[in-house]
Amino acid sequence: MLFKVTMDKRQQLIILFLTALLLLLASVSPRAARIKDIADLEGVRSNQLLGYGLVIGLNGTGDDIKKSVFTKQAMINMIKRLGLSITPDVFRRMKTDNVAAVMVTAELPPFARPGSRIDIMVSSMGDATSLSGGTLLMTPLKGADGKTYAVAQGPLAVGSIAFGGKAAKVQKNFPTAGRIAGGALVERAVNYHLPPSGDLLYQLRTTDFTTAAHMAEAINRRFGPNTAHSIDSGSVKVLMPQDYDADLVTFISDLENIDVRIDTPARIVVNERTGTIVMGKDVRISKVAVSHGNLNLIIAESTVVSQPNPLAAGQTVTTPQTTIEAVEDEGNLVVLEMGVSINEIAKALNAIGATPRDLIAIFQAIKAAGALQGELIIL
Length: 379
Fold this sequence. Notes:
Mean pLDDT: 79
Low-confidence stretches: 1-7, 24-29
Radius of gyration: 33 Å
Strand order of the largest sheet: 3-4-5-10-7-6
Largest sheet: 6 strands, antiparallel, barrel
Number of domains: 3
Helix content: 25-40%
């Protein structure tokens, strides 16, 4: 009896858990997203940095000094800055295949202060075959204005291998590009201050009038009327309420966690090179009949040999012969009703055995017929 009571309590707990889970899922819109995931605050953005440097310590996989002139010049300049002098004859006899010229790129995040670290990417610029095991020397990283904002240095993490000889080679990933986590120190900050008045302007990452209206409506529902209004399809202006006492950071934190019901246009994106098809949820098709069949032509070349019997007079004769065969697959006619959903479209097209490349041709034909209610994008 005690065992039976224990099982009843367990079943009650399971039922309560499932009920709470269903209520939670029902309360969240399936197409809702936070403001911080769909919009950016105007002015709060990262900046791109670029620099030119040298990677040393390579195991004979660096640049060919005779072909890469910029590598040679960079090494001469580096040696001069270190207070050393070298004659051209000595430099020509040096073996420098353990050095590679690289380009260094990085993203300077907003509000980065001097002394903070950022990640960098290092990519070979010359004919080096691998950067594995190399160390990046001190490289200034400059912005679009020509000013130095960070300095990079450190050992590379390539994450690839490349071995081989003259006749064969084994390679995994790309050994001519690497990454250094926290490999650059920020030396200069980009000056940006939040507006003291509390007037914020959010820019949608994907412009849409409906989404902008939903975003302003959700903000007004949370903070009160006239707090936000949409300017156009990509901008929403927000005023900070007086309840926050000029605490703009707390207001932005509460603001960016509001759920907004997003809306997207009906699109079908196809990539003919890879056979990839992505269809949006709102894609609709007017009533149309689809029939698709493949025609295969098989052409075979052969040679017929005719030779005389043993010990008989005559010569061997060869005659070319060509065989042509046409095979056409059966084309099933499928009728797509008006306003069918994406699930019904997939089921109907799978019923005729259409491959991804067949689907691309079918969608192009449906769009040409004027029956596709949406945008067809071909990459």
